[in-house]
């Protein structure tokens, strides 16, 4: 019997941002990158809960965005924290930070942790203007994340293939130094890490990925369904986290892909919720 289903990759915004999209498009480069297209859907936490009920999702991780300004991180984190307080049994919150804000970013991380946040993300270094290889910027943030047992979730994209809204340039070569420099960090790479798990066929990479998970967000836009079986064979099903990227995609589309490849029941259950429960200590 299928256990708890946890969607590890969803996005919500405050009603004010949904209602005044044009204003925020002008205020932030990351928001503009993702939502300049009028068809790009925005949802509030209440709307996400309705969708979760429709698609029979037990819990969702609600991610913030890689806002370029510290002030917008704080403004939207307030909404994330309010949402998880209203729906404590359904929503798990990740906060946004701008590492270039220095001590202010650390204090914001700590504020969010004290109010129930379980992670940081979705980070967008390519838009936020920092480099994972820059230890002067990254070390204080990563040490704080490790200290508070937070999960760090970053956007990732493929170095080849078609262009799409929000693809960006966070390819495996830019993520790998972060993994090597902070081996104790609980890292989640979105969108299959831009293909990073394929390199786990190299023994040294496999060893380096010991604390790294990969989510399945937007898979139908990127890969054939066979990727679920291929990745389970390469890195193990215990490193894969079901994530939809809702409202970009419905959770059902990802679940249908998973079911179409006929994974063994244990692996399927791990991907759809078991791994998330373990990582989040649910």
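^ structure tokens above, recovered residues below v
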């Amino acid at each position: 019997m299928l256990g708890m289903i946890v969607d590890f990759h969803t996005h919500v915004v405050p009603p004010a941002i949904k209602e005044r999209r044009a204003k925020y498009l002008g205020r932030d480069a990351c928001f503009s990158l993702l939502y300049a297209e009028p068809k790009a859907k925005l949802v509030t936490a209440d709307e996400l809960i309705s969708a979760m009920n429709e698609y029979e999702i037990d819990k969702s991780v609600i991610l913030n965005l890689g806002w370029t300004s510290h002030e917008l991180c704080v403004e939207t984190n307030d909404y994330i924290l309010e949402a998880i307080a209203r729906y404590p049994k359904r929503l798990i919150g990740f906060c946004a930070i701008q590492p270039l804000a220095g001590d202010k970013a650390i204090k914001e991380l700590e504020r969010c942790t004290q109010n129930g946040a379980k992670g940081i993300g979705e980070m967008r270094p390519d838009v936020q203007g920092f480099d994972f290889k820059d230890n002067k910027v990254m070390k204080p943030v990563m040490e704080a994340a490790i200290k508070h047992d937070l999960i760090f979730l970053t956007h990732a994209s493929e170095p080849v293939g078609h262009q799409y809204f929000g693809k960006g340039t966070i390819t495996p070569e830019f993520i790998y130094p972060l993994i090597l420099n902070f081996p104790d960090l609980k890292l989640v790479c979105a969108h299959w890490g831009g293909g990073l798990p394929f390199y786990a066929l190299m023994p040294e990479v496999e060893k380096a990925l010991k604390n790294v998970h990969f989510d399945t967000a937007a898979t139908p836009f990127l890969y054939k369904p066979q990727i679920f079986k291929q990745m389970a064979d390469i890195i193990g099903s215990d490193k894969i986290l079901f994530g939809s990227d809702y409202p970009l995609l419905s959770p059902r589309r990802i679940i249908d892909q998973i079911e179409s490849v006929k994974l063994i029941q244990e692996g399927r259950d791990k991907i759809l919720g078991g791994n998330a429960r373990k990582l989040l200590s649910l």
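The chain is about 45% helix and 10% strand.
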